[in-house]
């Protein structure tokens, strides 16, 4: 597994030190440590870690609220819990967390959780990126089709002729085909744009 920069937020210094030693012995870098959620958020903004390990119960901003902020910063989170913290765990189900570990944390639990959490987060990022790209492509296709229909209806042109006219307009104005199509659609609603022969 690649070396990760990891932030640890845990109010118990001994637990924090143990986790740091386990991570570093596995080749990871602990880029920041905090004893509360507010400091963890500040350090995350400064250090941009690949992953954050947060105690669920910390003073000030608890691990769940901190996890929400980490999610908005694009940082995957592993939460540390205790058996008696079912109220926190129920709340944690509603936030974006990639793994839960029960204290005391052992190396045999921690390292696979780090690996799996980062892998799942990476897969999610890839899927979201692919989905965004697909949505953009579909939107572009809709805009192009709409613009070609506008051109065709104005000039009594067939689909091939309207497509050629769209290409010519884009080239004449030195803009992309999609940009030209958007302008045609927007201006059609405003009744402004003239398409030249």
Question: Span from first to last CA?
Answer: 60 Å
Which superfamily, in CATH terms, is the homologous superfamily of the largest domain?
Answer: Response regulator
| Low-confidence regions | none
Q: Could you say which overall geometry the principal axes of the C-alpha atoms support?
A: elongated
Percentage of residues in strands:
5-15%
Query: Fraction of residues in helices?
Result: 55-70%
What kind of sheet is the major sheet? Answer: 5 strands, parallel
Q: Kindly identify the CATH topology of the largest domain.
A: Rossmann fold
- What's the CATH architecture name of the largest domain? 3-Layer(aba) Sandwich
Total domain modules: 2
| Total count of helical runs of at least 4 residues | 7
Number of E-type strands? 5
Characterization of this structure:
The chain is of the alpha/beta class and about 200 residues long. The protein has two domains: about 5-105, Response regulator (Rossmann fold, 3-Layer(aba) Sandwich); about 135-190, Winged helix-like DNA-binding domain superfamily/Winged helix DNA-binding domain (Arc Repressor Mutant, subunit A). Helix content is about 60%, strand content about 15%. It has helices at about 15-25, 35-45, 65-70, 85-90, 105-155, 160-175, 175-190, and strands at about 5-10, 30-35, 50-55, 75-80, 100. Strands 2-1-3-4-5 form a five-stranded parallel sheet, with helices on both faces. The N and C termini lie far apart (about 60 Å). The model has no long low-confidence stretch (mean pLDDT about 85).
